[in-house]
Amino acid sequence: MTDANTARFNAEALSWDSNPDVQQATALAHKAYLAHLPDAPTLSTFSVLELGCGTGLLSLALAPSVRSLTAIDAAPGMIAALESKLANNPAAPQNVHPIAVLLESPDDPVLNGQRFDLAVSHLVLHHIPDLPAVFRTLHGCLVPGGKVMVTDFENFGPEARRFHPESKMDGVERHGIERGEIRRVLEEAGFKDVKVETAFEMEKRVETEPGNGVLEGRMVFPFLICEGTKA
Ligand SMILES: C[S@@+](CC[C@H](N)C(=O)[O-])C[C@H]1O[C@@H](n2cnc3c(N)ncnc32)[C@H](O)[C@@H]1O
């Protein structure tokens, strides 16, 4: 991630949760994660790392199902928004640990050497310049037998570009993830039993004409869920 990209997410942090498309994508992703993860008793023992947690929409949804959740984001503004939700809501889960960091190594001191049972990430991969590097990092953050499970919209062709308004293309490294590429990247990072499937489809607002800023069009975007296990 570039500094400009982090600055953009800092600026967007306060209004992030008011975007209905973001809320809907999180709700659908949460459902998909629960459908793909082990049963509740096993899941409740998991320590989880979330990369690119934003304001913690998915973190707060998943936290009641797991033992602990370390929520990481490179944008301090996003982490401040999550910290404020945790501090101001007495009903917020107590097992969420937010950290502002651009995670580039499993040996980053912020993790204190902790290794996790599960790594998740939602709507982040399209912002990551170096996908092989991020999956090597996530692989290194897991215990043996640990799982990675990530969701993002699919690059299904040129129309996938319309996921973002033209004014928000800074920091968009790819217009969604590609099935073949993501499978190869997970396998090359060392993951076994790699599966890449359609998780859900979501209708969202798009510009009626690219670049006109009028978000009154609608388009359906497929999302992929990609999983693997560390040997
Ligand atoms: C599109 S937002 C998604 C936020 C959240 N997952 C959601 O769906 O609401 C992408 C987030 O990923 C973060 N990010 C991107 N690369 C990162 C990295 N290597 N480490 C930590 N955070 C990262 C950005 O700061 C940004 O907040």
Automatic annotation (TrEMBL):
InterPro entries listed in its UniProt record: SAM-dependent_MTases_sf (IPR029063)
Stretches that traverse the bilayer: none
GO biological process: methylation
Keywords assigned: Methyltransferase, Transferase
Molecular function GO labels: methyltransferase activity
Protein name: S-adenosyl-L-methionine-dependent methyltransferase
Taxonomic path: Eukaryota, Fungi, Dikarya, Ascomycota, Pezizomycotina
